[in-house]
Specification:
The structure holds two protein chains of two kinds.
Chain A: H1 7-19, E1 23-24, H2 25-32, H3 40-53, E2 56-61, E3 64-69, H4 73-85, E4 96-97, H5 104-122
Antiparallel strand pairs in A: 1-3, 2-3
Helix pairs in contact in A: 2-3
Chain B: H1 2-21, H2 25-29, H3 31-57, H4 66-70, H5 87-122, E1 124-126, E2 131-134, E3 141-144, E4 150-154, H6 155-160, H7 163-178, H8 181-194, H9 199-220, H10 226-238, H11 253-262, H12 272-281, H13 285-290
Parallel strand pairs in B: 2-4
Antiparallel strand pairs in B: 1-2, 3-4
């Protein structure tokens, strides 16, 4: 089961993913501060938490840590999609899907039914 | 006598009736009312279980009461205990039931919360649809009901569906959220969790889910046409399965929904009051049958 990120965690991951390169906490803070005031130390702490949780790896360059996500956004999304799509009937109460997939022979009957709807609409 | 009658009632409600009602076009004509009837039958089954258990443990200890008592019966040869109501048993049963439903609800809620946190991270909000876009080739549309609800559309769905079809799919999901359909599924899920093999539980749960889909379809029809909705359903249902194998549950639900959209007279109003009274009365039937005091 994937655990979601907290708000600030999500914002940090989002930035690092979009930039696609290692970045320092300072860069993340500067970017965050365009939207709202946020303390440098807070971001440092949260980045450290993300590192502990294994979502970020870091290298020391000069005096600052350079942070980088351990997985791509796509890999993360793929896990998420799997989780969303794997929703078995037992857990279906949590999510409501527009439609379920169907087998090949049902599909033929389905298209025939669709034609009926269309003719009905035209009348 | 009372026990036999209650047993008969349980057999009818638990086994015979579900087979007749499953897929019934009459219920599908008014899906929300149909779903309510299924839930009422489940409640009624549980209500009947209680006096049945009570009578099974002491079959001849009571004077007949309820409608059973109206049936002519031989004067008993031995003195009988008066008909009793065990209110504590009733309260305990109701509390237990409430706890089970709440536990199932809490579990679903926790799963939704986790899922929402993940979604908010990996998706991008689309202003035109007011939906979250998931960058994934697999076409799907779904919603996260409840407080802080979300409608999710994948990139695959955006590519697959045209503007009107997408409007139909999104409208359908919004109606799920607006109608709080997840709350209707909750008791059916909880019931099926414990009595999963009973036809009433197995069929009832699937039927409640399907009828709620149909209810959302109907509500969406105020904004999109039947063919737009039906073609969106078909496009998504027949799109290739996702990579990685057996995800997605095969279901005849889509076919039933599209066939229903082709039928005339969907979405009309029926004699609402009579129907509601019937649905409300169903859970009380076993009580009237076996327990109601005589004037």
């Amino acid at each position: 089961m994937l655990r979601g990120f907290g708000d600030l965690e999500a914002e940090i991951m989002d930035r690092l993913w979009s930039w696609g390169r290692p970045a320092t906490v300072r860069e993340v803070v500067d970017d965050l501060q365009r939207q709202r005031p946020v303390a440098y130390t807070t971001v440092t702490t949260v980045a450290d938490i993300l590192h502990t949780k294994g979502w970020l790896r870091r290298d020391k360059v000069g005096r600052a840590w350079l942070y980088e996500p351990t997985c791509t956004r796509e890999a993360y999304t793929a896990q998420l999609m799997h989780q969303a799509l794997e929703t078995t009937p037992d857990r279906a109460g949590a999510l409501l899907h527009f439609v379920d997939r169907m087998s090949g022979d049902e599909a033929t009957a389905l298209l025939a039914a669709l034609e009926q709807v269309k003719t009905r609409d035209e009348r | 006598m009372t026990l036999a009658l209650l047993g008969l009632y349980l057999a009818v409600v638990g086994f015979a009736l579900p087979r007749r009602l499953a897929g019934s076009p009459r219920l599908q004509a008014h899906p929300a009312a149909g779903a309510a009837l299924w839930l009422a039958l489940m409640a009624s089954f549980l209500v009947a279980l209680l006096p049945a258990a009570h009578h099974a443990t002491g079959p001849f200890a009571h004077e007949p009461a309820g409608l059973v008592g109206l049936i002519p019966h031989a004067e008993p040869a031995v003195p009988l205990a008066p008909h009793t109501h065990d209110w504590w048993l009733l309260t305990a049963a109701a509390a237990g039931l409430g706890a089970v439903v709440a536990a199932v609800g809490v579990r679903a809620g926790r799963m939704r919360r986790r899922h929402r946190a993940v979604l908010d991270l990996v998706t991008v909000r689309d202003r035109q649809w007011d939906a979250l876009v998931l960058e994934h080739a697999y076409p799907t549309v779904y919603c996260l009901p409840g407080r802080r609800s979300r409608v999710v559309v994948s990139r695959g769905a955006l590519d697959l569906l045209d503007e009107r079809q997408l409007a139909a799919a999104v409208a359908h999901e919004r109606e799920h959220i607006r109608g709080r359909h997840h709350l209707f599924r909750l008791p059916a899920d909880a019931f099926a969790l414990f009595l999963g093999r009973l036809p009433l539980a197995r069929r009832g749960r699937a039927e409640v889910a399907l009828l709620l889909e149909m209810a959302a379809d109907d509500a969406a029809l105020t904004r999109v046409s039947r063919s737009e909705l039906a073609s969106a359903l078909c496009a998504l249902a027949t799109s290739p399965a996702p990579p990685g194998g057996a995800l997605g549950v095969a279901s005849t639900g889509v076919l039933a929904r599209v066939r229903r959209l082709a039928r005339p007279g969907v979405g009309g109003r029926r004699r609402q009051l009579a129907w509601r009274m019937g649905v409300l009365a169903t859970p009380l039937l076993p009580y009237l049958l076996a327990c109601a005091p005589h004037p």
